[in-house]
Amino acid sequence: MTPSVIRSAFDWFQASFVGDLKAEAEARLSKLKARAQERNTPEPFEVGLIEMFVQPKAHGFWTYGLTHPEFDILLAPKAPPGAPKASVRLSAFGCSHNNVAVLWEVAQCCLDDLGDFLPQCVSRADVAVDFQGWEPTPEDMAQVVCPASYRATHGSEAAVGSFYFGKGQIVLRLYDKSTEIVLKKKVWVPDVWRATGRYDARLPVWRAEVQFRTQVLQELGLTHLRPCSRTPVSCSHTVLRGRRCGCRQMTRPRLAGLRTRAGLPFAPLPSMGSLSSVPRGSPSS
Fold first, then answer.
1. 116 shares a domain with 175
2. Are residues 73 and 181 located together in one domain of the fold?
3. Bridging pattern class, strands 115-132 and 4-21
4. Which of 41, 46, 72, 274 ranks highest by number of CB atoms within 10 Å?
5. Range of the domain at 183
6. Average pLDDT, the chain
7. Does the pLDDT of residue 261 top 90, yes or no?
8. Within this chain, do residues 187 and 133 fall inside the same structural domain, yes or no?
9. How far is CA 167 from the centre of its chain?
């Protein structure tokens, strides 16, 4: 059977920011975080026109974690000089259900409501290609030639479900996406596949996913996502380019139609979008 690509898209995008959190915003976040810890449940928090949730605990060195199905905002107002004070992360769900460029603008507008922040660097970008008609085997993967010394597999001897090449700044993962979405209860993913018109429910879906981190993105000068007008499959050729941010010119009327409770009402576009943003800056893991 000839392999066929179902869709190619960004699966994760994350950027770091420097700047200052507004005092009134920090005071509200501190109270809501304390309440969330007492009740052991996230507390709702209006950020501009979007309802997010303050988590009881933010992972790593971050002080506050604000979540939304489509994106997260992490804040560390007391971080040392040179360290990021904020991070915006577009989720796999958000990238799959929205035009990525519009989603990125919305996330940055939310960050602007919280304080005065400027882009520092792109800290992570994942590009995924979902395909059918070929199920990689250990014999196939043993023939892969690449500089990565780290190689690993997950699964049983009878059925290897994932292959890893490299770790750190560049990672390539090939894995059985059909099995993964069942294990992690990602019930929304098949709908994204069906929307492309190329999905065959009788066949398993595998994913090839490349993760890029800050250092390699900066070395390659890949700091901006330029718009791509190609079809969802061929738009994996979307490229990153360094360019000044245009997101801050987003006006309130453009946000006026957003729902604040049930998510972002953008038409599903199962393709790579464009992100206007993020000049080079200091590395951030």
1. no
2. no
3. antiparallel
4. 72
5. 128-212
6. 79
7. no
8. yes
9. 18
